[in-house]
Write a structure and sequence with these properties.
Blueprint: H1 9-38, E1 46-49, E2 71-76, E3 90-94, H2 102-107, E4 112-116, E5 128-130, E6 135-137, E7 144-146, E8 152-155, E9 164-170, E10 173-178
Antiparallel strand pairs: 1-2, 2-3, 3-4, 4-9, 5-6, 6-7, 7-8, 9-10
The structure holds FE2/S2 (inorganic) cluster (FES).
Length: 189
C-alpha cells in the first residue's frame, strides 16, 4: 500500500524505520569528511598560512623570505580541506639551495624546506627563530634545530631532528611530494 497518508499508523512506522536506518549512514558520511582534516600531509597537498596578512592563502615559494625565518602553515588537501590537526602543523622556510646539505636538498624544492612544527622533545610548536644561528627554536625548553641540515638538533633536550616533508613546486606553489621522513610527535606522543 502506498504511504501517502501521513496519519496512517503503518506509514508512520515505515517512515520512522527508514529515518532510523539512514541516520547512521549520514553520520558515517559526516565523519568521513571530518577524518580528512585529521589526516597527516599527503602528496599533492598544498599549504595555507596559519597567521599573518596572508592567513588562509595558498603558499607560494616567493612568499617565504630568503634565509628565514620560518612560517607556520597547515597542509591543504587537493579538495581544499585544511588538515588543521595538531600533528599536521608544518614550518616552511626558504634558503639558497647551495647552503643546504645534500640530504636536505633532496627533500627541498628550489631551496624551500618543510619540517613538522611539532617538537620532538615534548611536542610544543617550534615557533621561534634565532637570527644569530639561523635556526628554528622551540620556546618551551630551548631546543634549536638546523633547517639547512635536516633539522639536526644544535642545542637543547630534543632527542632527534624534526621529521622532514618532501616538497615540489607546481607553478610556484609549494606542494607536498613525499610524506614525513619519520614519526611526528614528542617523546610522549
Ligand atoms: S618541547 Fe620543545 S624543547 Fe621541550
Amino acid at each position: 500500500m502506498p504511504c501517502d497518508d501521513r496519519l496512517h499508523f503503518r506509514c508512520y512506522r515505515r517512515r520512522t524505520f527508514l529515518t532510523l536506518a539512514l541516520a547512521p549512514l549520514l553520520a558515517v558520511g559526516a565523519q568521513a569528511e571530518e577524518d580528512e582534516s585529521d589526516k597527516p600531509p599527503a602528496p599533492d597537498d598544498r599549504f595555507t598560512f596559519l597567521t599573518g596578512p596572508k592567513k588562509g592563502q595558498v603558499v607560494r615559494a616567493e612568499d617565504l623570505a630568503l634565509g628565514g625565518p620560518q612560517m607556520q602553515v597547515f597542509p591543504m588537501a587537493p579538495d581544499g580541506t585544511v588538515r588543521n590537526n595538531r600533528l599536521s602543523l608544518v614550518i616552511l622556510a626558504r634558503f639558497d639551495p647551495a647552503t643546504l646539505s645534500e640530504e636536505t636538498r633532496a627533500h627541498a624544492a628550489d631551496g624551500v624546506v618543510a619540517y613538522t612544527a611539532v617538537c620532538t622533545h615534548q611536542g610544543c610548536p617550534v615557533n621561534m627563530w634565532s637570527t644569530d644561528r639561523k635556526a628554528f627554536v622551540c620556546s618551551c625548553h630551548g631546543s634549536v634545530f638546523d633547517p639547512r641540515n635536516g633539522a639536526e638538533v644544535l642545542d637543547g633536550p630534543a632527542p632527534r631532528p624534526l621529521p622532514a616533508l618532501g616538497l615540489k613546486l607546481k607553478d610556484g606553489v609549494v606542494t607536498v611530494a613525499r610524506t614525513f621522513t619519520s614519526r611526528v610527535g614528542g617523546t610522549q606522543g
